[in-house]
Amino acid sequence: MKVAVEQDKCVAAGNCVSAAMDVFDQRDEDGIVVLLTDNPPDELAEEVRTAAAVCPALAIHIKD
Amino acid sequence: MVGASAAGLSTAEALRRKGFPGRITVLGDELHPPYDRPPLSKQVLSGTWEPERAALRTEEHLSGLDLDLRLGEHATGLDPASRTVRTRSGRDVRADAVVIATGVRPRRLPEQDGLAGVHVLRTLDDALALRKDLLSGGRLVVVGEGVLGSEIAATARTLGLDVTLAGPLAAPMALQVGPLISGLLKELHEERGVRLRLGSGVAGLEHAAGRVTGVRLATGEVLPAEVVVVAIGAIPTTDWLAGSGLELDNGVVCDARCRAAEGVWAVGDVARWQHEGLGRRVRLENRTNVTEQAIAVAGAILGDPAAYTPIPYFWTDQFDAKLQMYGVLPAAAEVQVVEGDPAARRFVAVYREAGRVTGVLGWNMPKQARLRRAEITLGEPA
Ligand SMILES: Cc1cc2nc3c(=O)[nH]c(=O)nc-3n(C[C@H](O)[C@H](O)[C@H](O)COP(=O)(O)OP(=O)(O)OC[C@H]3O[C@@H](n4cnc5c(N)ncnc54)[C@H](O)[C@@H]3O)c2cc1C
Ligand code: SF4
Question: pTM score, two decimals?
């Protein structure tokens, strides 16, 4: 699974971090999403899909 | 699915993600491919985004969902017993489950219809029409000091317009965030040159030759304007459900699982469901609720018995302030800054009632605010 984020769409809601904290984090200074890995292991795939689904800014993109 | 915006589309998507293989028909009365609304008052209005960037999904993604997406189709009625949706085109749809996702529409002033220069902001077309008028410059009066009105005032001011914000409350978003924080918002707007005419209701519009010329306040004062935006709240789009037998009371009334009748569900801005955590019926008009509720409704359709009990969340961007709000922020709550410094315009505030944390607000501290979300307890103290 390949993950990408669009930082200029992100509204810093942090929902992705709540859903998949091993893959996403937020910058301390402005809360914008930070991708910890763009190629998460299979066991995290479901969490990452949930993260993309709950992102209110549609800033997370997944390619299988 | 009736309504092809965030709520309808997210529910369809969640159904597919959960493995639902059946047929999904989505009816939407707008002609544009589904798009997102929050950028309309921000990036689309300011012009930093091309309107296409507000699309909810790419065409490729949409076709991957395998939906029968019927745009430009208006639902005119529902028979809950047979779960039949009647449509204007006459192509009625019968289904095992019907999801009502028709959102809200802006409340208008009685005299604004047909008057040039007066706008509401809900759709992409609204945003483009307003942007066009703003670009020809002049004086803008925003009627309504809620979240949307305050945001539009900020965006228009950033575009260089002469902006006045009018409304009955004492400060921008006073109803949503209470006196302390709205006081800070008031300072911010004033500092950036937005004229505030708050604390007095709007009595009507002045016009000449079919064009608006100003806004008349209850005090008798007239604020001259070439452009007026009316942002005085929204009404759930339930007129098409009249006669369906569903309970309609400030939205489609639902149980704790967002069910309005056997096989009929409601999701998004139109849904007023029993929030078991808060112990009352709630209807939220915010983007995060839409996605979360869509996932809950998709689950419920497929048999998940869990009640939907989210912690409400919304955000707003005004000038360089990015605000994040979690939980409930009552005007009477005791508000305490727990991190950062309001003078530096970076802080987290906690709202307490009877000692319990009911809400958290972050001002340019999104991550720190989210980390405190866990402190919130919803509902009445035991
Ligand atoms: C300008 C603006 C800025 C916003 N900013 C923020 C923000 O910063 N943060 C935040 O949290 N939230 C924000 N929101 C709120 C957020 O956009 C809404 O919560 C969300 O759009 C609700 O989605 P929905 O699908 O429930 O309803 P809607 O988006 O209203 O969609 C309902 C759809 O149903 C269609 N429809 C209605 N009746 C019928 C019918 N009879 N037949 C067929 N189709 C029908 C409508 O045309 C519409 O396309 C903003 C909203 C606006 C308008
Ligand atoms: S959920 Fe979306 S908007 Fe929120 S921090 Fe993550 S990427 Fe950004």
Answer: 0.94
